[in-house]
Fold:
Amino acid sequence: MRSCLHCALARALGDEADELLRRRVVVTFSRSEAVWLPIPGSRIYRGIRRLLRQAAAVGDGNTVRLNVVDLPGKAHVEVTAAVLAGAHAAVFACAFPRFVAATLPRGFAEGQR
Structure:
C-alpha cells in the first residue's frame, strides 16, 4: 500500500475550505515533489485536517503557510503550518513515517518502489 501525501493534502484543503473562508484564513503552499508513504491515505488525511484546524483556530484573518519537509535520510515526512498570531508566530506540525513498522528491523525502504 502506498498513499500520496499531496492527494490527502488537496482533499483536506478542499474539505476545510468553508471553515478557512469563514475565518478569513489564506493558505499558501510551496510546490514540492510528490511524496508516497506506506500508510493509509485516511491516516494522512486526518493528520493534515487536524493540522489545518489547529492553524485556522490561531490564525483568524491571517495567512497560514504550509510546507512539506521531506529530507533524505529521515525516517519521516513532516507537514508544517506556520501562522502569524498577533505579534507571535505559531508553528504546528504532523509527521508521517516512511517505513512499515513490521519491516523496521530490516532497515528503511527509501527509494524502493
Q: What stands out?
A: The radius of gyration is 15 Å. The chain has one domain: 3-103. The helical segments are 5-22, 41-58.
